[in-house]
Amino acid sequence: MISTANKYALKLEDVCSHVGTFELKNISFELGGGDVLSVLGPSGSGKTVLLRTIAGLIKLDSGKILLGSHRIDDYSPKDRKVGFVFQNYALFPHLDSKLNLGFPLYIRGKKKKEVYVEATNVAQELDGLPNYLEFKPSELPEGMKQLIALGREKLNECNLLLLDEPLSQLDRKLHIEMRTLLKKFITDLSKTTVAVFSDPEDAIALSNYIMILDNGEILQYGETFEVYNNPINIKVMELLSRLGLNIIDLEIVGGKIFKTFSVNLPDGLYKLCFRPEEIEVSNKGLEVISQKSYIYDSSRKIIECDFKGQVLKLLVPKSTSQKFKFVPTNPKFFNL
């Protein structure tokens, strides 16, 4: 168990809350001080409801929220020492970038001149932002709005940082650049962080713990790569698969599949699941014929192929022939 003596540790015990008819149900987990948790799930799964409940923006129906040794669910949002970066950035349209960045200092009573100095210093740490300090939000590119929303939390006296879809508003090229910057920002800040994502690639890249949420309930929680490599069911594996999931219905007979490949599982009916990118083209393996192909990047393509009447999607080298064999490198078998 993680000690809540660490003032940045976060612990939820059987937390329930609701918005309209949607319910967050018995959420329990512990996150050590300085750790980063990604919350991943489909739209409407309760990810943002969870963040807002932790922040005190949604009332708790039952359960406990502890930050360090303090139970904070009875505190007002402003007294919880929780920083929140909203999906839409929550910038003040009438303020320039410097004052938006330094707003936490301004509301604590610092003079505008002092706020400008500290905001300018923080901006120097955020790539490209110093060039936009005189601009108002309506004049800013999306990436700069995100940097201001993030940079503001460096000046906020918070013990816990909550991020709601911090990369969702960005185009693909900027998205990748900002993900690298966000990783550095979180590492430098060294605060316990809970971040919501819809993209599994972002969730995996930025966290050391991950929670899979669906319909207001935790499906799986644990260290990021442990959950990625050992999903407890097909739903979890699908949510952690950016390119989709291949599923083949099969029967294990005499410890073999397709009468050829040995597996260390009891005989019976299974679903074999594997990600399109987790395969190896080989002289031995499952034989398929490509039916459609799409360029993925400069060296690879995605192909759709037929295998015993089931359509598979595979990520292969561009030079792969129409007919070939492959082996899943990280296959998972789920009982029917």
Automatic annotation (TrEMBL):
GO cellular component: ATP-binding cassette (ABC) transporter complex, substrate-binding subunit-containing
Domain ABC transporter: 2-240
Domain of life of the native organism: Bacteria
Keyword Transferase: no
UniProt entry keywords in alphabetical sequence: ATP-binding, Nucleotide-binding, Sugar transport, Transport
Gene Ontology molecular functions: ATP binding; ATP hydrolysis activity
Record's keyword annotation contains Lipid metabolism: no
InterPro entries from the UniProt entry: AAA+_ATPase, ABC_transporter-like_ATP-bd, ABC_transpr_MalK/UgpC-like, P-loop_NTPase
Pfam families to which the protein is assigned, alphabetical: ABC_tran
Protein name in UniProt: ABC-type sugar transport systems, ATPase components
Annotated organism of origin: Defluviitoga tunisiensis
